[in-house]
BPTI/Kunitz inhibitor domain-containing protein
Amino acid sequence: MSIHVFLATAFALVSSVHTGSSSEANNSELCATPNNERRSDCNRIILKYFFNKTSGMCQHFKWSGCHEEGVFDSRYECVSTCNKDQGAPFCANSPPSPCEENKAGKETQKARERYYYNITTKKCQLYKFCGNKQELLNNNHFAAKGYCEKQCG
């Protein structure tokens, strides 16, 4: 009986080591700098993200539409795959300076409609912003839903 337990444990250990190296190889391919050469059949310009091995960061670039290896739709997707230490921490933050309401239910400040990424629902949602420009840097705050989706997924 103990030999069976030993063999089962050894098999599980070997399988997990093999799976880990396979996963690392897949990430290595996924996180390689994309080939963005221009060809006549690949002349689109689309904002995408790639992992820059030199800087160790996910960055946006204008993608030609060909060679999908190493190309991500959002910074969040790139970071989740290639650089978990970089994170897209602003996607997890509460939105900055939501407008306050008085007792009558009316806003007390001038509101601007903006979007933030709701980490619970995993969707970009509309909210009313009443802060100043300094609060917006590296924060969970976007002028358009499309920008929010590009950054946070």
Observations:
- The longest strand covers residues 46-52.
- The helical segments are 2-30, 75-82, 145-152.
- The chain has two domains: 25-30+37-86, 91-152.
- Residues 25-30+37-86 form a domain with the Factor Xa Inhibitor fold (CATH 4.10.410.10).
